[in-house]
Amino acid sequence: MQRIVAAGDRVYMKFFDLDFFRKEAEKEGFELFSFKGFDDSEFEEAIKDAVGLILIDRPLTEKHISVLEKCRIILALEVGYDFIDLEAATRRRIVVSNVPAYCTDEVATHAVMLLLSVSRKLLALTESVKKGEWDYNLAKPVYHVKNKRLGIVGLGKIGRSVVPKARGFGINISAYDPYVSDDIFELLGIERVYEFDDLLRICDFISLHVPLNGETHHMISERELRIMKKDAILINTCRGKVIDEYALLKALKEGWIGGAGLDVLELEPPEGINPLAQLSNVIITPHSAWYSEESLERLKRQGMEEVIRVLKGERPRYIVHPEVLAGKKLRAEN
Question: pTM surpassing 0.85?
Answer without folding.
Answer: yes
